[in-house]
């Protein structure tokens, strides 16, 4: 049996959740139900006293007790299981044997705050980005293969939304696994795939800038992007009005600080010197498409699918320190 109660993450939640919720209630504040329920389900995941199934072997008489799982998004065990099953499904049943390029979209921090809570807006931003990526593939295919119309070129992609980064901050961004070429319908009704050359830096900057402009236009229509110099006033913050404590947590996490008693404290970073940060183009809308997996390298594609589907926290990177402190080990120097 796996023993979640022995992990640092479980001990952290178990040792602090009750006191945290009690302080929230004492201050006449509240958290959304989905937040508290997620943590409470996590504390029952893999614990025999919370329920189990008895598996019996009729041949040898061996019994095994299998504790119920929480199936939560926060749980490393359940998230790891979904990652493994989801990646295998993509490779075996969804993505054909064609080259795949990973397109990653990062967005500026103020926009991360908005899409983190507003699912409809998040879907709209996703649609803006993928429309621009597909627009590039169709235009490149028309030039490369002398097509009479871009409508003859059919791109394809699987998109995963990630809400976190390796430092466990709230960082909403997109990973798109795109067939690195286009599907063309032949005159006999069959479909043929044709690969395309890699996008240039100018192509990536063009996609980033178009995504930036269209997202800003979308936010302007909704009254969420304002021009301070023109004297415009923002609409009210719906998240802050409905869930002020969650809004504070979101803002602190995006900024990379710890929130205690309404006071913000910077996280302490130790280890190797930080690398120089990459230049952000298009007001913080940054597009990267450097990773490409050839059609025949299915194991590498599986690894890439597991990476984009990974859970937000791994037990192996978190350990308890004296004094009710916890250390999160980063995968690489933080920029």
Sheet/helix structural class: alpha+beta
Proportion of beta-strand residues: 15-25%
Strand arrangement within the widest β-sheet reads 5-6-3-11
Q: Could you give the distance between the termini?
A: 39 Å
User: What is the count of DSSP helices, taking H or I runs of 4+ residues?
Assistant: 9
SS elements, strand count = 13
Largest sheet: 4 strands, antiparallel
Gyration radius (Cα, Å) is 23 Å
SSE ordering? HHEEHEHHEEEEEHHHEEEHEE
3D shape: globular
- List the uncertain runs: none
Mean pLDDT: 89
Indicate the percent of residues in helices: 40-55%
In short:
With 335 residues, this protein is of the alpha+beta class. Helices cover 40% and strands 21% of the residues.
Can you tell me about this structure?
This protein is of the alpha+beta class. Helices cover 40% and strands 21% of the residues. The protein is built from 9 helices and 13 strands. It has helices spanning 8-26, 33-44, 76-94, 109-117, 119-145, 201-221, 238-242, 244-255, 298-308, and strands at residues 52-56, 63-67, 100-106, 153-154, 157-164, 170-179, 181-185, 191-195, 257-260, 263-266, 286-293, 318-321, 325-328. A 4-stranded antiparallel sheet has the order 5-6-3-11, with helices on both faces. It has a 3-stranded antiparallel sheet with strand order 4-7-8, with helices on one face. It has a two-stranded antiparallel ribbon with strand order 1-2. Strand 7 and strand 8 form a beta hairpin. The chain starts with 7 loop residues before the first helix and ends in a 7-residue tail after the last strand. The mean pLDDT is 89.
């Amino acid at each position: 049996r796996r023993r979640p109660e022995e992990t640092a993450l479980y001990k952290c939640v178990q040792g602090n959740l009750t006191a945290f919720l009690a302080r929230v209630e004492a201050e006449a504040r509240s958290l959304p139900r989905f937040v508290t329920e997620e943590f409470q389900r996590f504390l029952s995941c893999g614990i025999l006293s919370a329920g189990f199934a008895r598996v019996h072997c009729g041949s040898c008489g061996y019994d095994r007790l299998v504790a119920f799982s929480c199936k939560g998004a926060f749980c490393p065990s359940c998230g790891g299981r979904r990652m493994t099953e989801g990646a295998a499904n993509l490779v075996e049943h969804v993505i054909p044997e064609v080259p795949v390029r990973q397109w990653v979209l990062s967005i500026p921090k103020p926009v991360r705050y908005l899409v983190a809570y507003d699912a409809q807006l998040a879907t709209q931003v996703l649609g803006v980005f993928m429309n621009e990526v597909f627009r590039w593939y169709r235009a490149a295919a028309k030039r490369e293969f002398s097509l009479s119309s871009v409508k003859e070129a059919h791109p394809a992609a699987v998109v995963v939304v990630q809400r976190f980064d390796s430092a466990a901050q709230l960082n909403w961004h997109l990973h798109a696994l795109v067939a690195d070429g286009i599907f063309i319908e032949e005159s006999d009704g069959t479909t043929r795939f044709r690969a395309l050359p890699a996008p240039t830096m100018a192509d990536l900057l063009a996609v980033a800038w178009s995504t930036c402009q269209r997202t800003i236009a979308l936010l302007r229509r909704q009254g969420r992007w304002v021009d301070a110099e023109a004297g415009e006033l923002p609409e009210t913050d719906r998240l802050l009005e409905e869930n002020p404590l969650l809004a504070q947590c979101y803002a602190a996490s995006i900024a990379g600080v710890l929130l205690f008693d309404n006071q913000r404290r910077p996280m302490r970073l130790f280890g190797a010197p930080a690398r120089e940060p990459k230049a952000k183009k298009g007001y913080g809308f940054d597009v990267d498409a450097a990773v490409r997996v050839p059609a025949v390298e299915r194991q590498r594609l599986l690894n890439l699918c597991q990476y984009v589907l990974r859970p937000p926290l791994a037990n192996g990177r978190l350990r308890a320190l004296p004094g009710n402190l916890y250390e999160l080990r980063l995968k690489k120097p933080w920029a």
